[in-house]
Please model this.
Amino acid sequence: MSFTVPVPAHFSVKASTSGGDIEVADIFGVGDGRTIGGDIELVRIEGRVDAVASGGDIEVQAGRGKMSVSTSGGDGHLEYVDGIVNASTSG
Model:
């Protein structure tokens, strides 16, 4: 099952899944993502981001702002990120 939710560019997003992926793109605002057993992909995000993946990967491309990303049991990949970043992985 997949959901696509179009939102305005200046919008805050909060998403969580168990066993599914989260993909967010082209947002200026607050991003909050949590997943168990899925990946998180953030593309062209500006603002505050808090993303946690348990058993999945986190990828951030072209992010700007204050970002906190962590994964346990997955990989982290950050590319073209500008701002304050706190990134961690375990496992």
In short: The two ends are 28 Å apart (CA to CA).
